[in-house]
């Protein structure tokens, strides 16, 4: 039973990635995975539920990669932040189904993705708060009397804002070499004066 579900998810990930959510049908996923359409609906009530699971797995992969960085005791907070930001964008570059969720028309029509992205935002704020607090303790970042909560909101907004040109406009390879400059600006802006 679990093998069937995994097979469906593997095929769905590839097909959604290739054709996008709108142009992918459950019939096509069933045909390519060599499963009866009923098997798909046994495991997933709808195409939306299947797509949510596919995107959720991409997000879980990103969380796993980023958690390793956040918990790395060999890195100071500045190094963690730099590595976190680079890794985040590199992992998201591979998460082609996540890219689909960035499209404006997708947001407007599918609330199921809004919940998933909201959970991701919250998780990221927890990770970034940990790095920032570590940086304040180490003296790498200054505590300039600003609310960490507001700083985290702005930080996540900046990261989300970068996703559109990096992934939807397919400028990752063009912009990635300059990402280090942006990270330097962020770290300098957070450093104690």
TrEMBL record:
<dbReference type="Pfam" id="PF00440">
    <property type="entry name" value="TetR_N"/>
</dbReference>
<dbReference type="InterPro" id="IPR009057">
    <property type="entry name" value="Homeodomain-like_sf"/>
</dbReference>
<feature type="domain" description="HTH tetR-type">
    <location>
        <begin position="2"/>
        <end position="62"/>
    </location>
</feature>
<dbReference type="InterPro" id="IPR050109">
    <property type="entry name" value="HTH-type_TetR-like_transc_reg"/>
</dbReference>
<dbReference type="GO" id="GO:0003677">
    <property type="term" value="F:DNA binding"/>
</dbReference>
<dbReference type="InterPro" id="IPR001647">
    <property type="entry name" value="HTH_TetR"/>
</dbReference>
<protein>
    <submittedName>
        <fullName>Transcriptional regulator, AcrR family</fullName>
    </submittedName>
</protein>
<keyword id="KW-0238">DNA-binding</keyword>
């Amino acid at each position: 039973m679990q093998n069937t579900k995994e097979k469906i998810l593997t095929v769905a990930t590839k097909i959604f990635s290739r054709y996008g959510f709108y142009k992918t049908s459950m019939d096509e996923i069933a045909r390519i995975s060599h499963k009866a359409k009923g098997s798909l609906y046994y495991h997933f009530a709808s195409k939306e539920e299947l797509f949510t699971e596919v995107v959720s797995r991409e997000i879980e992969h990103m969380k796993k990669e980023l958690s390793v960085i956040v918990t790395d005791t060999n890195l100071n907070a500045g190094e963690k932040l730099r590595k976190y930001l680079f890794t985040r964008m590199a992992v998201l570059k591979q998460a082609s189904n996540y890219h689909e969720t960035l499209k404006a028309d997708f947001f407007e029509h599918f609330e199921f993705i809004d919940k998933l992205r909201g959970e991701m935002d919250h998780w990221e704020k927890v990770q970034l708060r940990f790095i920032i607090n570590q940086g304040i303790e180490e003296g790498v970042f200054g505590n300039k009397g600003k609310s960490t909560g507001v700083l985290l909101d702005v930080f996540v907004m900046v990261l989300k804002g970068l996703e559109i040109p990096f992934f939807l406009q397919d400028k990752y390879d063009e912009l990635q070499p300059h990402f280090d400059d942006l990270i330097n600006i962020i770290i300098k802006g957070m450093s104690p004066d």
